[in-house]
Amino acid sequence: MDTSLIAKLRNMTGCGMMDCKNALEEAGGDLEVAAEELRKKGIAKAGKRGARETAEGVVATYVHSNKKLGVMLELLCETDFVARNEDFQVFANDLAMHVAAMNPLYLSREDVPEEVLNKEKEVYKAEINMEGKSEDMIAKIIEGKLGKFYGEVCLLDQKYVKDEDKIIEELVKEKINVMGENLKIRRFARFEI
Length: 193
Fold this sequence. Notes:
This protein is an alpha+beta fold. 55% of the residues lie in helices and 17% in strands. It has 3 domains: 3-49, Ubiquitin-associated (UBA) domain (Helicase, Ruva Protein, domain 3, Orthogonal Bundle), CATH 1.10.8.10; 56-107 and 154-192, Tetrahydropterin Synthase, Chain A (2-Layer Sandwich), CATH 3.30.479.20; 113-152, no CATH class.
């Protein structure tokens, strides 16, 4: 196996040399296929790390150039070693900038109050022409509209401003794989004049 190809895959994914070598062998030398397989495996590994305690981290801030918009975001990790890592701190700052740009109202779907969800469902039911539609069909339409709603108001469901092919939750899982530790966005606050 060509070592320059392994090194290129490692730079693309942040995975270990042996993982990259094995992925390239499985993919028959196809760099894109190997990168996608490593990404899938990394997200699976990230899910396993999700239960580990996060007691360290940083508070990242972003203040817009006009000084009328600011964000504070708390990003947690497992160890002080990772919290001091430059990549971790850059990631925290990127997340704060994303919050400034996209103005999420909640961190996750679980944080959306029940009364807000009920109000949204009522609006969707009023929009839908009920005639001739089964209860199952109406429920699927409302579920789809709620998915779009979550993508607008929940940070973890939003498309990342720097790469709209990924949502924030996927991005966090990728970083968990690269950093080798559980990461968690604990909270954020956005201030605007």
